[in-house]
Amino acid sequence: MRELVQTFLMLARAQREDAGSAPQQNLAQVADGLLSIWREPIEAKGLQLMFEPGNPPDTCFNATLLSAVMGNLLRNACHYTEHGFIRLTLNDNGFVVEDSGVGIPEEKREAMFQPFVRGNEKRGEGLGLGLSLVQRICENQGWEVTLSTMQPNGCRFEVTLGQR
After folding, report:
1. At what angle do helices 27-44 and 63-79 cross, to 10 degrees?
2. Would you say 79 and 86 are in contact if contact means Cβ atoms under 8 Å apart?
3. According to the CATH classification, is domain 2-14+26-160 in 3.30.565.10?
Protein backbone atom coordinates (compact mmCIF):
# COMPACT_ATOMS: atom_id res chain seq x y z
CA MET A 1 0.00 0.00 0.00
CA ARG A 2 2.86 2.35 0.85
CA GLU A 3 4.38 1.88 -2.64
CA LEU A 4 1.02 2.65 -4.23
CA VAL A 5 0.52 5.83 -2.20
CA GLN A 6 4.07 6.95 -2.97
CA THR A 7 3.49 6.35 -6.68
CA PHE A 8 0.27 8.39 -6.67
CA LEU A 9 1.95 11.24 -4.76
CA MET A 10 4.89 11.15 -7.17
CA LEU A 11 2.55 11.29 -10.14
CA ALA A 12 0.47 14.09 -8.67
CA ARG A 13 3.63 16.15 -8.16
CA ALA A 14 4.87 15.34 -11.67
CA GLN A 15 1.59 16.47 -13.24
CA ARG A 16 1.72 19.79 -11.36
CA GLU A 17 5.30 20.52 -12.37
CA ASP A 18 6.02 22.39 -15.55
CA ALA A 19 7.32 20.03 -18.19
CA GLY A 20 10.65 21.85 -18.03
CA SER A 21 11.04 21.56 -14.27
CA ALA A 22 10.25 17.84 -13.98
CA PRO A 23 13.38 15.72 -13.52
CA GLN A 24 14.56 14.46 -16.91
CA GLN A 25 16.44 11.22 -17.60
CA ASN A 26 17.07 9.07 -20.61
CA LEU A 27 15.90 5.48 -20.93
CA ALA A 28 19.23 3.95 -19.88
CA GLN A 29 19.40 6.08 -16.72
CA VAL A 30 15.89 5.09 -15.62
CA ALA A 31 16.61 1.43 -16.40
CA ASP A 32 19.85 1.48 -14.39
CA GLY A 33 18.09 2.97 -11.37
CA LEU A 34 15.26 0.45 -11.47
CA LEU A 35 17.55 -2.53 -12.04
CA SER A 36 19.46 -1.58 -8.90
CA ILE A 37 16.16 -1.70 -6.98
CA TRP A 38 14.70 -4.86 -8.55
CA ARG A 39 17.80 -7.04 -9.02
CA GLU A 40 17.86 -8.32 -5.43
CA PRO A 41 14.15 -9.24 -5.09
CA ILE A 42 14.14 -10.88 -8.54
CA GLU A 43 17.31 -12.90 -7.96
CA ALA A 44 16.20 -13.79 -4.40
CA LYS A 45 13.29 -15.67 -6.02
CA GLY A 46 15.79 -17.71 -8.04
CA LEU A 47 14.91 -15.91 -11.27
CA GLN A 48 17.41 -14.84 -13.90
CA LEU A 49 17.34 -11.07 -14.50
CA MET A 50 18.49 -10.29 -18.02
CA PHE A 51 19.21 -6.79 -19.26
CA GLU A 52 19.73 -5.97 -22.91
CA PRO A 53 20.76 -2.30 -23.00
CA GLY A 54 20.58 -1.97 -26.79
CA ASN A 55 21.49 1.43 -28.14
CA PRO A 56 18.52 3.69 -27.35
CA PRO A 57 18.67 7.35 -28.30
CA ASP A 58 19.76 9.79 -25.62
CA THR A 59 16.32 11.45 -25.55
CA CYS A 60 15.25 12.53 -22.07
CA PHE A 61 11.80 11.98 -20.60
CA ASN A 62 9.98 12.85 -17.39
CA ALA A 63 11.94 10.55 -15.07
CA THR A 64 9.11 10.20 -12.56
CA LEU A 65 6.60 8.99 -15.13
CA LEU A 66 9.00 6.75 -17.05
CA SER A 67 10.18 5.20 -13.79
CA ALA A 68 6.58 4.56 -12.70
CA VAL A 69 5.79 2.78 -15.99
CA MET A 70 8.94 0.66 -16.15
CA GLY A 71 8.90 0.00 -12.39
CA ASN A 72 5.31 -1.25 -12.39
CA LEU A 73 6.06 -3.64 -15.26
CA LEU A 74 9.15 -5.01 -13.48
CA ARG A 75 7.17 -5.36 -10.23
CA ASN A 76 4.41 -7.31 -11.99
CA ALA A 77 6.95 -9.56 -13.70
CA CYS A 78 8.54 -10.31 -10.32
CA HIS A 79 5.18 -11.01 -8.63
CA TYR A 80 3.84 -13.30 -11.35
CA THR A 81 7.00 -15.26 -12.22
CA GLU A 82 8.04 -18.24 -10.12
CA HIS A 83 10.58 -19.92 -12.44
CA GLY A 84 12.76 -18.78 -15.28
CA PHE A 85 13.57 -15.21 -16.19
CA ILE A 86 12.65 -11.56 -16.40
CA ARG A 87 14.19 -9.59 -19.26
CA LEU A 88 14.35 -5.81 -19.76
CA THR A 89 15.32 -4.77 -23.29
CA LEU A 90 15.92 -1.18 -24.37
CA ASN A 91 15.46 -0.37 -28.04
CA ASP A 92 15.27 2.59 -30.43
CA ASN A 93 11.60 3.26 -29.64
CA GLY A 94 11.30 2.41 -25.95
CA PHE A 95 11.59 -0.80 -23.98
CA VAL A 96 10.25 -4.32 -23.49
CA VAL A 97 9.68 -6.26 -20.26
CA GLU A 98 9.32 -10.02 -20.77
CA ASP A 99 8.90 -12.83 -18.27
CA SER A 100 8.39 -16.59 -18.10
CA GLY A 101 5.57 -16.25 -15.58
CA VAL A 102 1.98 -17.47 -15.56
CA GLY A 103 0.92 -15.27 -18.48
CA ILE A 104 -2.46 -13.70 -19.14
CA PRO A 105 -5.14 -15.50 -21.16
CA GLU A 106 -6.05 -13.70 -24.40
CA GLU A 107 -9.63 -13.07 -23.26
CA LYS A 108 -8.34 -11.15 -20.20
CA ARG A 109 -5.60 -9.08 -21.82
CA GLU A 110 -7.65 -5.98 -22.51
CA ALA A 111 -9.25 -6.02 -19.04
CA MET A 112 -5.82 -6.14 -17.36
CA PHE A 113 -5.41 -2.41 -18.02
CA GLN A 114 -8.62 -1.58 -16.12
CA PRO A 115 -8.42 -0.47 -12.45
CA PHE A 116 -8.71 -3.17 -9.76
CA VAL A 117 -8.25 -6.07 -12.22
CA ARG A 118 -5.67 -8.64 -11.17
CA GLY A 119 -4.37 -11.81 -12.76
CA ASN A 120 -5.78 -15.22 -11.86
CA GLU A 121 -2.68 -15.92 -9.81
CA LYS A 122 -3.16 -13.11 -7.29
CA ARG A 123 0.12 -12.54 -5.50
CA GLY A 124 1.26 -10.11 -2.87
CA GLU A 125 -0.76 -7.21 -1.60
CA GLY A 126 -1.57 -5.66 -4.96
CA LEU A 127 -4.85 -3.92 -5.65
CA GLY A 128 -4.83 -4.34 -9.41
CA LEU A 129 -3.91 -0.72 -10.11
CA GLY A 130 -0.40 -1.05 -11.55
CA LEU A 131 -1.30 -1.75 -15.18
CA SER A 132 -4.12 0.81 -15.22
CA LEU A 133 -1.59 3.34 -13.92
CA VAL A 134 0.85 2.31 -16.66
CA GLN A 135 -1.90 2.73 -19.29
CA ARG A 136 -2.96 6.17 -17.99
CA ILE A 137 0.60 7.49 -17.89
CA CYS A 138 1.28 6.19 -21.40
CA GLU A 139 -1.88 7.79 -22.78
CA ASN A 140 -1.07 11.07 -21.03
CA GLN A 141 2.48 11.14 -22.42
CA GLY A 142 1.65 10.02 -25.95
CA TRP A 143 3.31 6.65 -25.33
CA GLU A 144 1.86 3.24 -26.17
CA VAL A 145 1.87 0.03 -24.13
CA THR A 146 1.01 -3.35 -25.65
CA LEU A 147 0.70 -6.78 -24.08
CA SER A 148 1.35 -10.07 -25.82
CA THR A 149 1.95 -13.65 -24.72
CA MET A 150 5.31 -15.38 -24.60
CA GLN A 151 5.57 -19.03 -25.67
CA PRO A 152 5.20 -21.43 -23.93
CA ASN A 153 4.14 -19.07 -21.12
CA GLY A 154 4.73 -15.58 -19.80
CA CYS A 155 4.04 -11.99 -20.79
CA ARG A 156 5.63 -9.40 -23.04
CA PHE A 157 4.90 -5.73 -22.40
CA GLU A 158 6.24 -3.32 -25.00
CA VAL A 159 6.29 0.41 -24.34
CA THR A 160 6.82 2.75 -27.30
CA LEU A 161 7.88 6.21 -26.22
CA GLY A 162 6.59 9.05 -28.36
CA GLN A 163 8.27 12.44 -28.33
CA ARG A 164 6.32 15.19 -26.59
Report:
1. 20
2. no
3. yes
